[in-house]
Design a protein that fits this description.
Elements: H1 9-29, H2 37-40, H3 42-73
Length: 94
């Protein structure tokens, strides 16, 4: 089973923030960017955007983990007899 990655808002925000910081650093090092105050704040805006994306991603992961915990709590079937058999689990690769 092949899973494809979907780009969510967290991924987009994270990469926009990282790209902003990298482009600012390159522009500053090559002298394309002069130093008005708003230009000096570009790395702050980029870092804030990247942190917002990372925070959204962490929040989504924690929501999934919370759902898994509640699903596991609902399992009430005790294992009473497993027999004396040996089972081999084989995973088919597609």
């Amino acid at each position: 089973m092949k899973h494809s990655h979907r780009w969510g808002s967290a991924d987009v925000l994270t990469w926009i923030g990282i790209l902003t910081i990298v482009l600012w650093a390159l522009g500053k090092s090559f002298g394309f960017i002069s130093s008005p105050v708003w230009v000096e704040m570009i790395p702050v805006y980029g870092a804030a955007t990247a942190l917002a994306g990372i925070s959204i991603g962490i929040g989504r992961t924690l929501q999934k983990l919370d759902r898994v915990i509640s699903d596991v709590d609902q399992i009430n079937h005790p294992v009473t007899d497993h027999g004396k058999r040996l089972h081999v689990i084989e995973i088919e690769r597609v």
